[in-house]
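Try it yourself: sequence plus FE2/S2 (inorganic) cluster, in.
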Amino acid sequence: MQVLDDALSVQSDPQGLMTLALTITQKYAVARDIYAFELVAAQQKTLPAFTPGAHIRVRTPNGELRKYSLCNSPDDAGRYVITVKRDAHGRGGSVSLVDDTVPGQTLLAQPPDNAFALVEDPRRLIFIAGGIGITPMLSMIRSLGDDSTIPWSLYYLTHDEQGTAYRELLSAPSYAGHVTLHHSGSRHDHFDLWPVLEKPNQGHVYCCGPRKLMVDVRDMSGHWSSSRIHFESFLEGGEKKPDDRPFTVTLSHSGRTLAIPVGQSILEVLRNAGVNVPYSCESGTCGTCRTHLLQGDADHRDMVLMPEEKGDQIMVCVSRAKSDNLVLDW
Ligand code: FES
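Structure, out:
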C-alpha cells in the first residue's frame, strides 16, 4: 500500500496512521438523518481489498477519528461505501462528516480492518441489526449474493420506517423470505428474538446495534457456544457514564502505576506508555485485548467475558474500575 506523503496527510495526521486519501464521489440520504458516502481513491492507484464486516477509520473534518463499516460488496472493487447516522447528541464526528463535507472533498482514512469477520457456516447465518447497526450486515449479505446456498436471515429492528436505512433495498423481492423488518415505533413494540435463538448453535449469529440490543442477544444466547455469537460496536473506548471516575492501574511486570483519567481507556493509557497490548475493535466486542486481572474490582463494559471470567480477566479497551486500583498482568 502506498503511504501518502503529501501536505494534506502530514498536516492532518502527525502519527502517519491515515494512509488512505479518499475522495467523496457521492453523498445521499438513505433514511432520516442517515447518509451514504461513496468514496474512491484520491491518490493511490487502487484501494486495499476488504472482507465482509470490515470497517475503516475516517478523520472527520472536525478532527475526530471515527469507525465506519464498509457497506458495499467486497467484490465492488474501486470504491468504499460508508453510511453515517448524524447523531446530534454524539461526540461531534458524525455531525461534522455530514454537515461539513461535499462531493469532491478528500478525507483521510486508515485501511480496512475487520473485527467482525463472516464465517461462512453452511448451516445458517443469523444477522440481528438495530438501527445504524445494519451497516456491517449489508456487506455480509451482499457478499453472499442472490444465489447463496447458505440459509440466512436478517432481523432488522428500527424505531420507524423513515429512520430505516436501505429499507427499499432490503424489501426487494430477492430478499423476500430472508429479511424481517420490525419497527418498534412509539408503542415500544418489542420484537421477540427468543424463537430465533432458542435452538443453540444453529450456525453463527452476528449482532450490531444499540448496547441494549446486544446485551439482550448475549443474555438470550448464553446456551450457544460463544465462538458462534459475534458482536460489533462503534462505541470506541466504551460507554461513557456520568459517574465515571479516575483510577490507577499497576503493571505487575514493571511495578509502574499509571493514572487512568475520565475520558481515556486503560488501553489508550497503556499504549501511550509504550505497553504493547494487542487490540483490534477498541469497543469490547472482539476479545483481542483480553488481559489478566491480578487484583482489584473491574467495572466490566465488554460483550466478550463470560460471568466466570470476570473475576480475573478484563477487556482493557472499554472496561474501567470500581476499586481505586487494578493490578494487570503486564
Ligand atoms: S480490542 Fe476488541 S475487545 Fe478490546
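One thing you can check immediately is this: The helical segments are 7-12, 93-99, 135-144, 167-170, 194-197, 211-220, 266-272.
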